[in-house]
Amino acid sequence: MRDQLELLWEIQKIDLDLRQIQEEQDRFPREMKKLDEKQGIEKERLQKEKEKIESLEKERRQKETHLTAEIDRIKKSEGKMFEVKTNKEYQALLNEMEAIKTANGREEEEVLQILEEIDELRKVFSRKEKELTAAQEKIEAERKAIQERMTQNDAMLKNQMERRGALSKQLESRLYKLYNALKEKRQGIGVVTVRQETCQGCFVHIPPQMFIEVQKNTDLIRCPNCNRILYWEGDGKTK
């Protein structure tokens, strides 16, 4: 029975390893998704900065086009001054030209302000572009590390499955069925160790005489509380 119990314990440890590997494998796609989302957010932020600059550039061009048209209006008005026949018409033309020049002055100031804002935004954009490049490099490094870990886990999973298959063939059929049934009912754990007269599955104390028998690893003994198979992992000394 000692050999069978040792096989059971090895299979239990493999199953716990397999569960951990599988949980990690299941977590990887979620981590990859988070990286993609993070990368998308960074790109979106930079795109908004770019759109802001483009919007201001468009506004600047519109104002400059309007200024050019208004300057042409002034030139035409100046040309008309030689054609007016009355003082009233002359004064009206002067007033119109003055109003256009005043409006142009305000618009020129607005254009200068827009240019300053664009210049500042370009500096910010350049800085954020560098930050995005650094962030993307970091994300790609994390992505690569995850992919490498996935490859390693695949190899570990295959190796442990092969090892488990080989060990299970050496186990008595009744014990293997019992173990699988217990594992299914007890959150994947059918075999547990005992320490200081305590079942490490449910952490309930077992009778002293039972603890002595468990340390021999010569009989199939199950916890009176959780019903798991008890195994002594040690050199025979009480822990």
Write the H/E string, N to C: HHHEEHE
Q: What is the count of β-strands?
A: 3
Number of domains: 2
Shape: rod-shaped
What percentage of the residues does DSSP assign to strands (E)? under 5%
Judged by helices, strands and strand pairing, the structural class is: mainly alpha
**What is the end-to-end distance?**
22 Å
* Order of the strands making up the biggest sheet: 2-1-3
Radius of gyration: 41 Å
How many alpha or pi helices?
4
CATH architecture of the largest domain: Orthogonal Bundle
What's the layout of helices and strands?
Layout: H1 2-80, H2 87-170, H3 173-185, E1 191-195, E2 198-199, H4 208-214, E3 229-231
Parallel strand pairs: 1-3
Antiparallel strand pairs: 1-2
What can be said about this structure in brief?
The chain has 239 residues and is mostly helical. It has helices spanning 2-80, 87-170, 173-185, 208-214; strands spanning 191-195, 198-199, 229-231.
How does this model look, in words?
- This protein has 239 residues and is mainly alpha-helical.
- The protein folds into 2 domains: 20-171, Helix Hairpins; 174-231, no CATH class.
- 77% of the residues lie in helices and 4% in strands.
- The protein contains 4 helices and 3 strands; from the N terminus they run αααββαβ.
- It has helices at 2-80, 87-170, 173-185, 208-214; strands spanning 191-195, 198-199, 229-231.
- It has a 3-stranded mixed sheet with strand order 2-1-3.
- Helix 1 runs antiparallel to helix 2 (87-170).
- The chain is rod-shaped, with a radius of gyration of 41 Å.
- The mean pLDDT is 88.
